Amino acid sequence: MLRGRESLIRLIGKRRRVLPNRQSLLSAPIQSSLNLCTDKNGKVVSIETSEGSSLVDDGDNRSKVESFAGGEKRSDKSEEVTCPVCENKVIGNNYIVNSHLDMCLSRGSAKKRKLTQRTLLQMNFCSQSKIEVHSSEREQMGDDLLLVSCDESIVRNGIHGLADFGDVEENDSSLSESLLNLNSVTRNYIDGSSRNPIHGNNMDDINDTHSLSVKNEVLDGDMETTLHDISGVILETFIVGRRFSDEKEINCGASIFLLRDPHNVKDPNAIKVISAYSRDSKVLGFLPRELAQYLSPLIEKYCLIFEGQVTAVPKHSLDVVPVQIFCHKAVSSGKIEQDNIELFRYLWRKTQQVIESTKKYQASKTKYQQNFCVLIGEVLRNSLHLFIDGEKDFLDSFNSFSDDCQKLFVRLYIRKGPWFRMSNIFYSEISDLQKAMKELSVSGYVRPFENINELHDDDANDILNLLTVSELREIMCILKQGLAFDDYTVRELCGQIRVKHLSNDGSASPALPSMILERTGACIRISSKAESLFWRAERLFFLNGEQDLSSFLLADLGIVKYPTYNCIVTEQIFSDRNDLLAYEEAIEVAQMVDQALDENDNELVLRCIKIAESRISNTSPKAIETSTSETLVTFLSCFSASSVYSKVLTLGASFLERERRYNEAIYLLKRLLECFTCDGRRGYWILRLSVDLEHLGYHDESLSVAESGLLDSWVRAGSKMALQRRVLRLGKPPRRWKIPSFANLVKRKINEVHVQGRPLNSVTGMKSRFYGEDDEQCGVEQLALQYYAGEGGGWQGVHTESGIWLTIFGLLMWDVLFSDVPNVFRTRFQTAPLDLETDSFYLVRKSSIESHLQKIHDGMAEEILITSWESYVGTACRGVNWNRHTLSELRAAVACIGGPCLALLCRHLAQGYRSWSSGMPDLLLWRFNGEFGGEAKLVEVKGPRDQLSEQQRAWLLFLMDCGFNTEVCKVRPEPTS
């Protein structure tokens, strides 16, 4: 795989079915100094200038390299001009101005209305004002959270119960700290979120919210509320989770009572609903998660007893059941009331707010329907400024659709598509399918195909995939005058039709649409507008392309359990709509590159490379500062268009190197180094630039690039090791006479052990296989484990590479990973903070990390490990693999490694997780010496034809510096007589 391809695939995630900017991207002129094309055979070639020399010739390349080595920038004169399309100020040279103009014209910005002032809605809900936390409260809450928003609201992790029941405001105070002590409330703060004025029947609506100060958190009506006052107050709610119930039959009016379920693996705040008439206390279901998170601490801390009755029986046995509950009595209420009356009033008010919001909940809504509504509601609340009026109305209109209409759209949206036969669409939960389809069509959510006039030219290719093999053969026989195509597959038949009966522009022959419609019948697809807007909503909600609505399902079923953390948001990821549109367009370019590589379309690959090169500018990401206030740029910059284009160009350089177009690859690498001065990939770019220059015979320039790269603070880990070794190799006399200071460090000898084995295969390019001690086939790692367990010294161990180390790091640093840091948690489906792979992770948490590492150094690592395992087992966390290693293995490894070495390793990963999370030694071995002592060893295993990579060498040398016992085990075939 080309270098950078995997990163690009993760960025794209699920490929979009509709690329709205594809046509404009492919047709618009590109102002790029990189002029490449392909010949008739698809081979990459350069366009020659009128003088007959390549635009990126050797001489020009030499001057550019010298410019890089000297640290010079482009000398084009910069000036400020006003864009005639978007009317924004653009600062830069002619190249930057023209690139900006091309982007505006391609997006049609001239047709969009430009808002010149902030609306009242924006003023109310986009405020960035902050208040200082009082010193006494800061001591309770910790030093990490220094500023709190005036308009922060709870976004609950309500994925196991009902849908999101509106926003419940929460300002930091001592009573919030008490909630944390009860482990009963997960606070998700959202600052500056915009509330959507949703019309009609929307379950996310609530009556009114205000920005309250800490002391005014309790409403006036609640100021005198006591435990006695709530006795007999009726609360209307639902029983959910009926599939987990013991009793399937429920009668209207049946008596119930509530019982805490603190050992519930999905929710420690869970409350069971018990049948009062059942002798063996049968469980009827559970209270909604949103209600249980407030009612549970009330029951536990204030010893409240709730009873009630069933008010209605649903049609289906697994549907939610409406009930009424009331507080029957409180034990020792007078004593407990004085304990923390403020906390009691707070919990009771939250309970009432949730109950009030659930009154608008429709019991007929399916789970996937609820989840989709939650996604739309949160996006509209938190990112309203990124949508224009028409888009807001379009998304908001989904809440006014009928149940059948909503269910049908969600069902179609999550299917592959893009076209569907209406005759093949059937869902048991949708009562009137035809009416729902008509409603979606009228609203513009779907586009039907019922007659040949509705078939667009670009749809003929997609609709062909709906036909079966027999139907395709019939069409081919008709078009080919009766010839048989019995041996053709669906893909081959569609290909034949495309070649013979679709023109170059995608338009179909006149007879083809009627033949397709005759066999498929009426078809339907999601409209381009709906596809684009809901794709955007998903992207804004999950912040990546790898997660989608299935994440809700996995969480609902308990397959994936996400960690608990606080979402404290003080800055928007996308400051305005233009940033978002540029980011979306960049992802389109990335997807086009990925698809073109799959189809071996070199011409399209080159086109996308030139588009990416034309978009980046010298004003791209800023240099990282050490101050905390500047670290926001370091981890949110990955959501910028320039960051996406840098991935495209990294892949493009690798593609050109594969095509042996080193001049052009050098040009791209230089552009990346010029534009992205603070990037963890600079080490790779500099290394490849040095290597490519050597390919062209420029050894002096290659050496200069490597030497200057070693002075770059962003060159780390394996890239730094590789550059050091290049300098030593290229810098021999007469090029260089002075030996670098790092020579002795790089040339340090790593202890080696040689093991002989009986080879099963000795084929170059294949992984080596051997016969083990039990004559079973095994790899070199298993053979090494057998050696160390026997004559190697009685070692126990595992073959894990980086896996066990990342698991140990995640468990030991769990509290640090999910501590309260602003802006690093933004969605309920994260498994790590957004800044984990950046320098800001350590800088922002330096005091807490060092304090935690001191505990590990002092010998508390095993205790921390056990506590984390027992508290969070099964919870998803970046790098932690719960199934691969047992707790006993991890305890043995931690105990034998020792606190000082573990502390150094954890600090190293905290400071550079991205650079150092791969390349660790293959084997982790341990053995106990007596009852309490132990030792550990790390071993990199190499087969007969394997060599240490630079990253592996860098790890081994670092581990040696930390005091680890390390060595390389080389497996060789037994000599033949």
Automatic annotation (TrEMBL):
Q: What is its main location?
A: nucleus
Name the needed cofactors: Mg(2+); Mn(2+)
Comp. bias regions, Basic and acidic residues = 59-73
**Stretches assigned to the UBZ4-type domain:** 80-109
Q: Which PROSITE patterns match?
A: ZF_UBZ4
This enzyme catalyses:
Hydrolytically removes 5'-nucleotides successively from the 3'-hydroxy termini of 3'-hydroxy-terminated oligonucleotides
Q: Which UniProt keywords apply?
A: DNA damage, DNA repair, Hydrolase, Magnesium, Manganese, Metal-binding, Nuclease, Nucleus, Zinc, Zinc-finger
Region (Disordered) residue spans:
50-73
Top enzyme class, one word, equals hydrolase
Per its UniProt record, what SMART domains does this chain match? Answer: HIRAN, VRR_NUC, ZnF_Rad18
Q: What GO terms in the biological process aspect are recorded for it?
A: interstrand cross-link repair
An example Gene Ontology cellular component term from the record?
nucleus
Q: Name one GO molecular function term.
A: zinc ion binding
EC number(s) stated in the UniProt entry for this protein: 3.1.4.1
Classify the source by domain of life.
Eukaryota
- Keyword Magnesium assigned to the entry: answer is yes
Location(s), subcellular: Nucleus
| Key word Transferase present | no
Q: Which InterPro entries match?
A: Fan1-like, FAN1-like_euk, FAN1-like_TPR, FAN1-like_WH, HIRAN, Rad18_UBZ4, tRNA_endonuc-like_dom_sf, VRR_NUC
Q: What does this protein do?
A: Nuclease required for the repair of DNA interstrand cross-links (ICL). Acts as a 5'-3' exonuclease that anchors at a cut end of DNA and cleaves DNA successively at every third nucleotide, allowing to excise an ICL from one strand through flanking incisions.
Query: What family, per the record?
Result: Belongs to the FAN1 family.
This protein's name: Fanconi-associated nuclease
- Read off the lineage from the record: Eukaryota, Viridiplantae, Streptophyta, Embryophyta, Tracheophyta
